[in-house]
Automatic annotation (TrEMBL):
GO biological process: cysteine biosynthetic process via cystathionine; methionine biosynthetic process; transsulfuration
This protein's record includes keyword Lyase: yes
Keywords: Lyase, Pyridoxal phosphate
GO molecular function: cystathionine gamma-lyase activity; cystathionine gamma-synthase activity; homocysteine desulfhydrase activity; methionine gamma-lyase activity; pyridoxal phosphate binding
Stretch forming the signal peptide: none
Family from the record: Belongs to the trans-sulfuration enzymes family.
Broad class of enzyme this protein falls into: lyase
Positions of modified residues (N6-(pyridoxal phosphate)lysine): K200
This protein's name: homocysteine desulfhydrase
Organism for this UniProt entry: Enemella evansiae
Gene name in the database record: metB
EC identifiers of the protein: 4.4.1.2
Cofactor(s) the record lists: pyridoxal 5'-phosphate
Length: 389
């Protein structure tokens, strides 16, 4: 039989799967319940919270892409985070998280720590040697990585820190949302779990909310699945079907996202209104060489810094191709102010520690015409520069 790549196998997951009418595209199984043969003998499915054929197809595709077990599909990205954390920790366990992680993730860990479910340690994982040394001292139960980070696109050495975490007896979970599974595969670098907000690049059309957890080993995958069912965090059939449809175009979309992001970065670099540009594709980015080794591209996300709120407001006022909105990874271009939007759950002092400034803007660069995006950004920068003049 012809050998085919992970990517092709994932894209073709579910095609010609339905044998009842010969459909090429798989149907949506929306039934909430399934017939038992006898009271003590069920078929492959019994209740859709516990298992659903359509959801399983998406899980299979993501498992193939990440090189792990079939993914556990959840109703939201934070549902995936919550399921993974509760499945992997006991009350009193120590968990190490990045100092600059996504605001919703930080909020969850902070609240769990307040309720004494876990001991929380915040580390700068971009300082690889220092972080590895701290892991050896702390001996945590779970190490949570996010690379590239949200919103500053910092890069974490997954392989080195995973090795240190394993030596300390910890499991490692890596949030791979920014790269998507076509640009980075943390399980291949040693991680135990990969987390996705499939709302973002995997679905790619800003019309479905969802999440996924992919485990490297079968036993851990079974544990994650048990907790997703117990907590009721599993996703719905229609959402899974739409996300699988979106996943089939992920490689094509990512190429255009990256091409457009590179053009926007070139427009930002050296502009008088811009204090800093955060994009791992830049040779001067602190994580550039590491990103080039562990990723297969630099993605469509970037952030940059203006002088402050007045410049931010001027940049935003008049944009034609960027919508001011949260989320990312859709076909449309978005601009976000992390401090007031996605990371608002972080107190000001935590934002400062993470490097989130009042002038920071995050761009999710879409797949529109490159020249239109560049023109729009250039005009916004001119407005910001006029404020600073």
């Amino acid at each position: 039989m012809t050998e085919i790549s992970r990517l092709t196998r994932a894209i073709r997951t579910g095609l010609e799967w339905d044998t009842s009418v010969g459909a090429v595209v798989p149907p949506i199984h929306v039934s909430t319940n399934y017939r038992f043969e006898t009271p003590d003998r069920r078929g492959g499915y019994d209740y859709s919270r516990s298992g659903n054929p359509t959801r399983d197809l998406l899980g299979t595709a993501l498992g193939i892409l990440e090189g792990g077990q079939p993914a556990v599909i959840t109703g939201t990205g934070m549902g995936a985070v919550t399921t993974a954390v509760l499945a992997c920790t006991e009350p009193g366990d120590t968990v190490a998280i990045p100092h600059d992680c996504y605001g919703g993730t930080w909020r969850l860990f902070a609240r769990l720590a307040e309720r004494q479910h876990l001991e929380l340690v915040v580390l700068n994982f971009t300082d690889t040697a220092a972080a590895a040394a701290r892991l050896r001292e702390l001996r945590p139960t779970l190490v949570w990585l996010e690379t590239p980070s949200n919103p500053l696109l910092r890069i974490t050495d997954i392989a080195t820190l995973t090795e240190a975490a394993h030596a300390a007896g910890a499991l490692v979970a890596a949030d791979n949302t920014f790269c998507s599974p076509v640009r980075q595969q943390p399980l291949d670098l040693g991680a135990d779990l990969v987390i996705h907000s499939t709302t973002k690049y995997v679905n790619g059309h800003s019309d479905v909310v969802g999440g996924a957890v992919v485990a490297r080993e079968p036993e851990l995958a079974e544990t994650i699945g048990y907790w997703a069912n117990t907590l009721g965090t599993t996703g719905g059939a229609l959402d899974a079907w739409l996300t699988l449809r979106g996943l089939r175009t992920l490689p094509l979309r990512m190429r255009q996202h990256e091409q457009n992001a590179a053009a926007v970065v070139e427009t930002l670099i050296g502009h008088e209104a811009v204090g800093a540009v955060h994009y791992p594709g830049l040779p001067e980015h602190p994580g550039h060489e590491l990103a080039a080794r562990q990723q297969q591209g630099f993605g469509g996300m970037l952030s940059f810094e203006l002088s402050g709120i007045p410049a931010v407001e001027a940049f935003l006022d008049g944009l034609a191709c960027f919508s001011l909105a949260e989320s990312l990874g859709g076909t449309e271009s978005l601009v976000c102010h992390p401090g007031l939007m996605t990371h608002a759950a972080m107190p000001p002092e935590v934002q400062r520690e993470a490097g989130i400034t009042p002038g920071l803007l995050r761009l999710s660069v879409g797949i529109e015409e490159t020249d239109d995006l560049v023109t729009d950004v250039r005009a916004g920068l001119a407005r910001a520069a006029a404020v600073d003049a």
